[in-house]
């Protein structure tokens, strides 16, 4: 049986309306999921909906492309925290990583983590489907060096989502120093279990209720 705290109950689609977010929040409270993962627009609203529960607000930053500047990501992060976010999922600058500009990528993550401080969890989305094995390793190493809390496979908005082999690779690099979040295309209990078996500490999915209830 998968733990309810394995899941970030996610709604990131561009046409998500208040009624959709209400449903996600109600389900997250009912099943005691780890967080509700939303775009920044809904941060304050979700924080009010989840007040008094142990379900965290998780806000995405630099989403989904990661190509905004570091100051913009830091501003997004600061705003989200002020509005009630307890976790931040930031997207790295994939192009900079592929260019070999590790200094930029490291500083990008480092500055966002500094904005988060010690109390706010930072998950770093590396968008594995766009990276070579060497680039995936390097992204994980830079995330560790920057003091992030998690590395995360995917936004779910690129060419592919989470793959168990990528989770295993990421876990082999970060070990016990960071946790691993798998997200993107996780829609069945079987796939969720394969991600957990590969080493994922958290799963991001919009099919959370179906997956969790079928695993009980």
Fill in the keyword field for this structure.
8-stranded parallel beta barrel; TIM Barrel; globular; 216 residues; alpha/beta; 8 strands; 9 helices
Structure description:
This protein has 216 residues and is an alpha/beta fold. It is 45% helix and 17% strand. The chain contains nine helices and eight strands. The longest helix has 15 residues, at 102-116.
Tell me briefly what this model is:
With 216 residues, the chain is of the alpha/beta class. The protein is built from nine helices and eight strands.
Give the overall silhouette: globular
Q: Give the class from helix and strand content and strand pairing.
A: alpha/beta
CATH first level: which class?
A: Alpha Beta
Overall pLDDT level: 98
**Cα radius of gyration in angstroms:** 16 Å
CATH architecture: Alpha-Beta Barrel
Distance between the termini: 5 Å
CATH level 4 superfamily: Aldolase class I
The tally of domains stands at: 1
Strand order, largest beta sheet = 1-2-3-4-5-6-7-8
**Percent of sequence in beta strands:** 15-25%
- Continuous helix count: 9
Order of helices and strands: EHEHEHEHHEHEHEHEH
Q: Remind me, CATH topology?
A: TIM Barrel
Unreliable stretches (pLDDT < 50, length at least 5) are none
Please provide the count of β strands.
8
User: Level of helix content?
Assistant: 40-55%
């Amino acid at each position: 049986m998968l733990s309810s705290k394995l899941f970030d109950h996610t709604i990131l689609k561009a046409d998500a309306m208040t009624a959709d977010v209400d449903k996600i929040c109600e389900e997250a409270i009912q099943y005691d999921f780890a967080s509700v993962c939303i775009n920044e627009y809904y941060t304050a609203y979700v924080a009010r909906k989840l007040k008094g529960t142990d379900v965290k607000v998780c806000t995405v930053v630099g989403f989904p492309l990661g190509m905004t500047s570091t100051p913009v990501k830091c501003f997004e992060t600061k705003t989200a925290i002020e509005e009630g976010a307890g976790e931040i999922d930031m997207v790295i600058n994939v192009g900079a990583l592929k260019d070999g500009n590790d200094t930029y990528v490291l500083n990008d993550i480092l500055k966002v983590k500094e904005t988060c401080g010690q109390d706010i969890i930072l998950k770093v989305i590396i968008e594995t489907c766009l990276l070579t094995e060497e680039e995936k390793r390097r992204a994980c190493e830079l995330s560790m060096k920057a003091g992030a809390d998690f590395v995360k496979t995917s936004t779910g908005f690129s060419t592919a989502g989470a793959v168990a082999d990528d989770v295993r690779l990421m876990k082999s690099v970060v070990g016990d120093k960071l946790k691993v979040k798998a997200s993107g295309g996780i829609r069945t209990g079987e796939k969720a279990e394969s991600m957990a078996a590969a080493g994922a500490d958290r799963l991001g999915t919009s099919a959370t209720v179906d997956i969790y209830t079928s695993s009980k």
